[in-house]
Each structure stands twice: as C-alpha cells, then as structure tokens.
From TrEMBL:
NCBIfam families xrefs: bact_FAD_ox
SUPFAM superfamilies, A to Z: FAD-binding/transporter-associated domain-like
Record carries keyword Secreted: no
Protein name (record): FAD-linked oxidoreductase
Amino acid sequence: MTLSGSRLLQPGTPWQNWGRSASDHPKHVARPSNVDEVIEVVDFARTHGLTVKPIGAGHSFTAIAATTGIRLDLDAVDGLISVDGPLVTLAAGTNLHQLPALLAPHGLALANMGDIDRQTIGGATSTGTHGTGSAFGGLATQLRAVTLVTADGGVLRVSETENAALLPAARLGLGALGVLVDVTIECVPAFLLSAVERPEPMAAVLDNWHDATAATDHFEFYVWPHTDTVLSKYNTRLPIDAGRRPVGRFAGWWEDEFMSNSVLAAKLELGRALPGLTPAVNRFATRLVGDRSYTDVSHEVFVSPRRTRFVEMEYAVPFDAVPEIVREIHALIERRRWKISFPIEVRSAAADDLWLSTASGRRTGYIALHRYHREDPAEYFRTIEQIMQTHGGRPHWGKMHNRDAESLRAAYPRFDDFVAVRDRLDPDRLFGNAYLERVLGA
C-alpha cells in the first residue's frame, strides 16, 4: 500500500526496542526523508483516524514510541543543517554518535553527554537523556530552538524569539506535542577530559558525595551489589590543546570491550543459571575493573560501548538524599536475598527550568538500576521504586517505571501547564499512545 500514490507508506512490521522490554506492530511504517514528507504522513494519519509516532534508535526502555497506527522512522531525516557560532541545527533523526564527526570541523562539542550515543538527538532530548555533573543540565537544556510538525500539519518553530512561551515544554516534550524534525543546540568549544577511574570503599564515597561532585566536573560511581566496593569515575574538563593521553589499544579493549561487555555478558548468564554464585562473582569483578587514568577528547571519555542488552529503571531524586537512598537499596538487596549482577549507577545534574525535566526546579541525583534482559526485573524495580517515590523521586521518561499521571502530577509543579500545551497542540491525540495516556492522562 502506498500513501497518496507515493512510496512513503508501507505495511507495518513488528518492532522491539533495544532492551527487548517494549514492542509493537503498527498498521503502517513510513520513512520520510524531509519535512514535507513528514507533513504528508501526519496529514494522512489525521485524515484516516490513525495515530502516528516517530521512532528513534529504540533505546528507551518504555513503550514511549510504540504505536498501533503509523510508525514514523526518521532515520533519513538526519544530518547537520546549519552552524551559527556555537548554535548548531541538526535534523532530529541524527544519532549522537554522528555528532563528533559533524562538530569537529567547527571546533565544537556537546557540553555534556551520557554514556550511550546510539540514540537520535530527537529521541534523547524528548525523553530527558542526561549525563553527569552537578553544574550541568541534561541534553534538552542545551537546546535553544526546536521545530515541530504539529497535528494540523503545520510547522511550528519554538525558540527564545518565536513562540517562546512554549519553549519549556517543547525542549522536553515526550513526543506528545508533535513530530520533532530539527533542534538547535548550543555547543561549546571542543575540550578534553582527564579521566580517573578507580575502585573505592562504598562508605567513603557516599560520605564524600557532596565534596566529590563539587570538586569534579563530571563525577559518577557504580555500586557493586553484595560488595562494599564502588567503581568511581572522576572526569575533569581541560582545554583541547592540553594534550591527549588516550587509553592504549590493548588497555581500551580489555576494559571497554572484554571486561565491560564480554565478561559482563558471561557473568550475567552465569548469574541467571546459578544465582547463588553472584555475590562471589561480583566480589571477584571488583578486583578486575577500573583503576586507570587517561586524557582524551570529550566524547571518547563520556561514551562507553554497551553491547550487552539490559533493562533499566532510573530515578531522579533530591541531590542531598543520594547517600541515604543508596545505603537503603544496598541493605534491601541483602535483606531480600536478591542476587543482582548489574552494578547500580549514580550520577548528578544541575537544576533546570524545563517543565517535565526530571531535574526541574531542583539539584538532582540519579540512581539507575539494571537487570539482564533475560531476567524478570519486576520485583526488584517495583520494590525500589517505592523507596524512590518516598524520597520524592521522578522516573526517567525513557526507562521502566510504574507511575501514572495522578502520581506524576504531584511530582512536577508545571505538569498541568504541559498538559495544557498538549491539549492545545494535539487535542485529538494524533501523537498519543498507551504510554502517554498513562503518564499524561487521556
């Protein structure tokens, strides 16, 4: 079947996200290559009573992109559109891993990144992707303008000078306001990161949480369940001409490929087959990972290869509460006698003013829990989610959680303002799906 005589609309095919935690089988799939074709698909969906959802790289662990209507694959809506000083406009389907090559000729880089770069810029900003650093906001805070194709087929530009009142909603819009077709991001001059990674006693790191985040540009640590050890990562920003001292080829392969992927996968399969061995295996692993220092261009330090599939729940919590919550989770794992192979990731971010940002209005700590994709995470995630909620936690929009609109409204002071913008831009829920109905209401 074709769309209005064109080749845009094809029969729907089954889809799964990267973590295998969400799937769909839409009626149609469309692969536009430009904004006019996106408009054509949106007009068709509206006329024929179908929903339409853009899909990025599938790295969200929720069903935020699932649809029974038209799946809009934006792979071909990608690339660099323009550069104006530090302001870089990118098509929404551009993957984060494409950015270093696109930005390097202009001497630019993203101010901050997470540790995965497979996502599209549109998907990453729409779901609240972030890195770490108590003085740095999530990726969406770096946006200065966005362009949406709205439910009526119009093109809406939102910036500090055009439709500015919509900017706090549109920069992190969950795909609920329209199809994001391009973003303008404020970059920074390219820089190096000096990285120090080492195992440390958990008690000391938790006691030093405030000082470490204040003294280090980008600090994070990984708690190994069933041990008293964490892997700490201290990344300090340096000028681009300070001199690279990258990880050697063998050392990089050993840590980033062999230990963090091959050995991890084997450890997870062993833990699934013989869960009683997990504590001993975790203790052994803490003796083999980390304890290195190097200096390299920013994206080479921020990003790590992630080839072992997992599912994830992450909560944003008040910054000062992080040590208490980590201790509570660590004790709970032992008390429940769970066997948890994956480390717990702890990061931070600055407060921002985006209405649905998990760091909206408060300095934030992030605590992320993972399970191997072949394991059932339900009890582990649900039980710890109760702890997070008790502490005023907000779930990452692209990671597994059980919250609904009623509970989320209490967590976000501007929740109803966002819903009002959604009602204005998409009153008939052309861009709706079951996930958005749950978290935003019908």
